[in-house]
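Quick note —
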Amino acid sequence: MVSEYQPWKSYSHNGIAPGGVPNKAQYFDAIRQMYPWQSLTTSIIQKKQFPLWNPYNFSGTPLFANIQSSVLYPLKLFYLIFPGCIAWTILVIVQPLLSLFFMFWYMRTIKSSVIGAVISAVSYAFCLFASTFLEYNTMNHILYLLPLSLVCVEQLKIGFKTPYALLLVTSVVMAFFAGHIQLWSGFAAFLLLYSAMRIFSDRQNPKSLHIFSGIVFLVVLGIGISAIQLLPTIELILQSARTSQPYNFLMEHLLIQPYQLVLYLIPDVFGNPANRNYLLSDSYATKSLYIGILPFILALCTMPLVKKNGIIRIFWLLFACIALFVIRSPISGVLYKIPIPFLTSSSPSNFIFLLSLSLSVLAGFGIDSVTKKDGTTVKRVLLALFGIIIVTFLIGRQQSFLSIKNYVFSLGLFGITAFLLSIQLRIPKARVVCSTALLFLLCIDLFYFFQKFNPFVPASYLYPDNSLIAWLKQKPGIDRIWGYGSAGLEENIASQLGYYSSEGYDPLYPKQYGRLIQSSENGSIGTQFTNQTRSDAVIHPGWGQTDMATNAYRLKLLALTGTKYILTRIEDPISEQTFPPSSFDLSGEFDGWRIFRYLQVLPRVFIAKTYRVCTSDQDFQRIFFDSSFDPKTTILLEKTPDISMPSDTPLMATAVITSSETNTVSITADSNQSALLFLSDTYYPGWNAYVDGVKTPVYRADYAFRAITLPKGEHQIDFRYEPESFSLGLKISIACTMLALVYIFLRKSHAE
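Predicted structure written out below.
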């Protein structure tokens, strides 16, 4: 943040030159999305409002419906008790701690030994996937709930128990509210598949179908209770720019390639992005297969026991099922020919956590089998893995991609682990000592990669104040901000600092708005979304002396979105050619910043006399970007409004925003005739308008904004965000909560 993002990189921190603070260049999304959303939702709740809408980014966008804002996640109560930095840190810390506890509990429930349960818990809680996504502070909150849910299944398999039924429903709901719908879908699918395998494996139990149907019903009730979040999220997904990944990109970059399975042995064989030496074009986090050398060896040692041990068989089957969707193969090549919800629209590799859980469970049983067998399986596994490590070294050195340091570290871990396992097999009396040493080695192993990737920094580096931030919080008011050249601000910083921006970065945002923003480059409405534009809606960036003044398309959109202030830096090549005095006025200058006021900007709200109806994207862009078109006097609509406006009477009208809150915008307007009132906030289902308390239709105006018809005279206009998806979801959630309580009470009474 303080080294690479504006406005912080232009300031000195702790005596270090601007832009010079060392950093690992990780967790961009934590800075650009997760933390700002948590800050924003907390601040809104503290004002005793419900955070349905984010008014600061994308000229306004749904906030609650964006599931990653995790408004209803119970542990967010920490944000209402502690300062944001403290609460964030607490929620980071509890993720692996709860995973440790619940994984240990689950392993003991299925009769693993204590040492096996500890190894499983450590390898799962601190597997590389968990470590690399730790600071997102959403995904790992789903990870710890999965073993807890499996505990509930095991208990309900024996007989209906009210506490575990309630706990299962609660786990499903909490996992959904945690804030990552893709991982939640994997969580739910794994839970149901595991339940089916575990319950129906007992062929002698006549109640298997009854037990399984009960568990399914509890999961469905959990989904129903989540409807308050689910329905707005589905609505946003349908309205959003989120599309399926291109087939070739998904197959070649988002899936685990077969040769990348070596990452189970040497996680940094291709380097590490925190060290700036990562060689793959793919994300390091989505290739984070590693669970530790020891657990991987132990898991492989259970393969001969597949036929004898039901739990081992189930988890190898689960591993194989998940691998079909995560690892590239001819089968996955066929599967991904068609769009698959929660898979093709994101990275299927995010389901690595299910592979890690499966192997971690197997590792717990592996340590038990190692201590009971003659060692033949262990020797074969060690020899096979040693051969793979040697071949990797030979190929890596020949292709010049292997880091010797990373290779030696992993080879050393492998060698020590193999030595301790050999001692454990040959000297039965040394098993306790060897097991303890192996566990200690596992902790060192996983901690090494944990600390290598994760940054720990002074709290003073977390969104520190500076002179520009002070200006942003006071001067602009309701007007929007944009940065030119090197003064460009990261999009979602607006949500953190509370100023208004026409830009935004979010995996889910209104696609109509995104298409319009794309036209700032060349005047063409976007027809497709790329890997960048499906998450980023940004005004086309500018650079140099002439680019600002010569891009008429960008200027027109800046004017339409009410972007009044343009930030610049003194180190950029700027002159009167860049900001002609006829269109720009120097509004402020301090600490290397120059702030220009755009004189042609339209107010956030204004009244226009005329309109034109556009029936297609091509029609809109042809009219809107015509040099003779004036958006201040004419509004472009999708359909004819219910209004008659005199053509010969000069319009005399005023409109002023008197209040701009999270879910409401209040306007006082006065007009000498019937007209159209335009508000440059994003059009989205659920926004209703009231003129003097009477509801009136809201029209999509100028492609992505709002307009209403305004009768003659002085009026009070209120725009209120009242999404039906939220209201309906709330009703379903209440009904399903009551149904769940009644069902569990009746089952309890029946069991008694």
